[in-house]
Design goal:
Blueprint (H helix, E strand, L loop, with lengths): L2 H14 L1 H26 L4 H7 L1 H15 L4 H12 L6 H4 L8 H4 L3 H9 L6 H19 L4 H13 L19
Length: about 180
């Protein structure tokens, strides 16, 4: 979940005009406030506990805006807002989990090598093959960054798929009580 991508999505709402633009403009302001707070945590002087408290109004306002957007008739505004609401908690993971950042810039950097590999090899020849390679390379890179065993994870993921169960998470291991808001 990347806040830089989210910012682009909100700019698209602004560009759309009407009620979408109002929601997009308010959300762009919320994103700017969040990045200002985050830079205070990353660069000082804001500590994580103060950051967690300071982001609460932004999170509350954001949820309210997503609910408003989900109620709009325009499907190009409604659907993204509905999707954002479904994953609302995951947008705030960086608040609770040390080492997780609000943008995926640090996550995308290690993926450059696999992307170049795919291009040199002309990649998979089907949409399904593309998704498989994309997901496996992403999982491998993420697990290596977390110093987790890649083969163990892939074995668990395949076993879960065979049993029609939820696959293991790629998020760093943390207790669900750590994410309470």
């Amino acid at each position: 979940m990347c806040w830089a991508h989210l910012k682009r999505d909100f700019q698209a709402l602004v560009d759309r005009g009407g009620e979408s633009a109002r929601i997009g403009r308010v959300w762009l302001d919320q994103v700017q406030q969040m990045f200002r707070l985050w830079s205070g945590v990353r660069d000082g002087p804001l500590d994580r506990a103060d950051f967690q408290m300071a982001r609460q109004p932004i999170q509350a306002r954001g949820g309210e805006l997503w609910r408003q957007g989900a109620g709009l008739p325009h499907h190009k505004t409604r659907r993204p807002c509905e999707n954002l609401l479904k994953r609302e908690a995951t947008w705030w993971t960086f608040v609770w989990v040390e080492g997780v950042e609000p943008t995926n810039t640090s996550a995308e950097r290690p993926l450059r090598r696999p992307v170049r590999w795919r291009r040199r090899r002309f990649g998979p020849q089907s949409e399904a093959g593309s998704r498989l390679v994309e997901r496996v390379l992403t999982a491998v890179t993420t697990l290596r960054q977390q110093k987790r065993d890649v083969l163990d994870y892939l074995t668990e993921a395949c076993a879960a798929a065979i049993r029609s169960e939820t696959p293991p998470s790629l998020l760093p291991h943390f207790s669900t009580t750590d994410t309470a808001t």
